[in-house]
Amino acid sequence: xxxxxxxxxxxxxxxxxxxxxxxxxxxxxxxxxxxxxxxxxxxxxxxxxxxxxxxxxxxxxxxxxxxxxxxxxxxxxxxxxxxxxxxxxxxxxxxxxxxxxxxxxxxxxxxxxxxxxxxxxxxxxxxxxxxxxxxxxxxxxxxxxxxxxxxxxxxxxxxxxxxxxxxxxxxxxxxxxxxxxxxxxxxxxxxxxxxxxxxxxxxxxxxxxxxxxxxxxxxxxxxxxxxxxxxxxxxxxxxxxxxxxxxxxxxxxxxxxxxxxxxxxxxxxxxxxxxxxxxxxxxxxxxxxxxxxxxxxxxxxxxxxxxxxxxxxxxxxxxxxxxxxxxxxxxxxxxxxxxxxxxxxxxxxxxxxxxxxxxxxxxxxxxxxxxxxxxxxxxxxxxxxxxxxxxxxxxxxxxxxxxxxxxxxxxxxxxxxxxxxxxxxxxxxxxxxxxxxxxxxxxxxxxxxxxxxxxxxxxxxxxxxxxxxxxxxxxxxxxxxxxxxxxxxxxxxxxxxxxxxxxxxxxxxxxxxxxxxxxxxxxxxxxxxxxxxxxx
Length: 536
What we know:
By secondary structure, the chain is mainly alpha-helical. The protein contains 23 helices and four strands. Helix 19 (416-428) runs antiparallel to helix 20. The N and C termini lie far apart (53 Å).
């Protein structure tokens, strides 16, 4: 895609999209009409992706959720319960204990080279000439975490518990634990089949391991189709669920804590979005290194602040914790609780809560592919920590806060803005200023999610349209514009469609993961042997 073509596309998009920003604050504006028309045109796709299998008259489970869970269980068993047995190893990799295993240099290659790591020749050749990555294990972890830790952890948990009861918490934790195996699989493949450009920029993720990995298995045509489908879905998901949704909900909570309809920001969502778009633009222009430098400071910091605030609430309500834990287990294993728990997990998975870690979707492998390492499995183990932190730690802390303060008994919650408000009110039972801390966390979560999804979307964009600077700036400019639109408009159908695109990424990804799992086992065995040898 040449620069002139990019400019024409950008001008056309700005001409089409700017009216949305102008009229977004008018509830009878053009955005509402577009939303209704868009919903009518794309509803079939949303219904297809989230097609549900009825269990009872009142309960149905989306097929996408069933595939994610069955896939996670399969990988957990196939890799010998790696999410349990290699948890300590993963911690040590992040700590840098095994950094001495990395050569720190390139790999000399020739057309007939063979390597003990079993990489494809074109990948090894590029790595040998230009280095092995851009970021550290810790930075890759935080960059990926910044794309998953967000409103699902705060608002989604409140929704799940309000619908499924306290027992939903147990199923959230279980989903996070088995999801670790899926994340390990996809991120190991992301490193193994990545490509590195002439300037050292890393290109990786499902697009590459689907195309190259399936080709190596004699399934080249299937690989190209699967990779292309994934890339298209990823671009759409980055504009919607990874961008507009985040900006919109961050604005809604900010407006709530500053006075609601009487807030000084009421009616100025476009201004909130413009400010956020400026900060997002500053970061994403720098690429993954810039993103990693931000996220390896912002993500740990905001997680610590959020967890500390949760701990304070739990200390104040310490007497209620035993009953809360009892309520979680009794609710999870009671007849009604089992059904409610599954509904809760369903909501978490489809609406970014228990499955806010996106294990099995494939998105995080794009960020993890940029790691500096000689061993693909080392980053797979690091990535395994992501669902643990995201779901087992943060979602559980949120759930306990909601349960011990009794907020989950206030009735069903219909959307994320309501869920975030309930969680904020839970914190507010201890100290009046806690909702403001939570609002700051939500804004930071939204910001970090957007900058990471911009990277995911650009990787898919470059796979389809090339790696020129024109193509890069075209995508990033469009992405920043959608930040403004997301804050200003109430595009429910657009966001629903974007969510469907994100979860549609799962279908080609899961097919590839199952077929390519033997490669992952080989990589894991090689890395564990290297560790054993170094310890001897």
